[in-house]
Automatic annotation (TrEMBL):
Keywords for the protein's UniProt record, in alphabetical order: Signal
InterPro entries to which the protein is assigned, alphabetical: Peptidase_S1_PA, Peptidase_S1_PA_chymotrypsin, Peptidase_S1C
Name this polypeptide is given: Peptidase S1 and S6 chymotrypsin/Hap
PANTHER family, sorted: PROTEASE DO-LIKE 5, CHLOROPLASTIC, SERINE ENDOPROTEASE DEGS
Signal peptide from the UniProt entry: 1-18
Amino acid sequence: MRHIGTIALACGAALAQAQPASLAPEVLFDMVSPSVWVVRTQDEAGRALALGSAVVVGPGRLITNCHVLARAKAVAVARENVTYGATLEFPDPDRDLCQLKVANFHAPAVAIAAPQTWRVGARVYAIGSPRGLETTISDGLLSGIRRNEQDQIEALQITVPISPGSSGGGLFDAQGRLVGITTMILRNAQNVNFAVPSSWIAEVPERAQAALAAKAAAAANVGASTSAQTTPQGDRVFEYRLRERQTGVSQPVVFRLDRVEGERRIFNQGERIERLDGGVESVDKPVSGEFDLAMPPGGWVSGTPEPGSAWRLDYTVRRNDLVIRMELRARAVDTTTLTVGSRQIETVRVNYSGFTHRVTGGHMINSSTYEASAWFSPTLARVVRFDARTRNQHIRIDETLELIDIRAE
């Protein structure tokens, strides 16, 4: 027994030596707070828009959340009585990370923790500017590491209290290393807050440049006339009616098919691009209400799902200053026939249920249960009807998008 105890003590001592010592909170704050700055934005008239936070990650470089910069025409970073003008250098809106560039700026950069050092249950500290209160520290636990179906990290869940103004601030481990960038709270859930992982920061420049190149290529493809393009014949105009069921207010939504490029269908002068299997590649203007706003990457339905099949949809979409997080389960329920004008359209009905979490302008966070149904026509390769409902004290969505006419012009 003494031998086993000796081994255990030796292993414990070795483990203690392998793990860096935790810093006292006041020591940690003194070490990293000079690297956390307030972000202030203004509109084109010079009026204040938003407050957030940013973390220094390199010489003259800071990281913040992109939603902090929404609609901004001027950006500044400030600390105590010092203010610097900043410019957006690399945006990665899909991950809500934007890199700022500041001239003649010499604040120290933080050390970034490697993902393998993250431990659920470990104490973490947030430093930011909640409600504009500069360099405020709060603590809690890393309560979860959220992953998608491909086992890729999507978010860090924390119990650390954060508030509007904390967006873009730093989440640090007990050794003062940056673990994440605080980004979102759930107002209707106690101590359920989120940060984006710090491991994404190094990828921001490359992802931003790739997105810019893809956008330029897409614009070139839309404007170019090539042999791969064909002028569609027959059905070219798909007219929907978007109706708010509570009020009865409705409006038309028209998708006009301009051309076909290989496997892509170009609608409304490139504002909407769909695939031949019914998947949605891009939507520049969400004119179809909830159908567009909360649409999963690739569309609500594509291909021909078999009744009884089920799948999971966990994703985040961003529309300017609106961030929507969806946690849904989808099931193809049955086949049914819908009438569109004088046509009988065979459809597969898919039901969705789960939760939606929404951040507006980085300031208002709403969570609610979510129910939706989509009727998908394999023949037309598109959704011909979509119903969505969710409601609590902050959100009320009760919409129907319904195809009412198909015509050649």
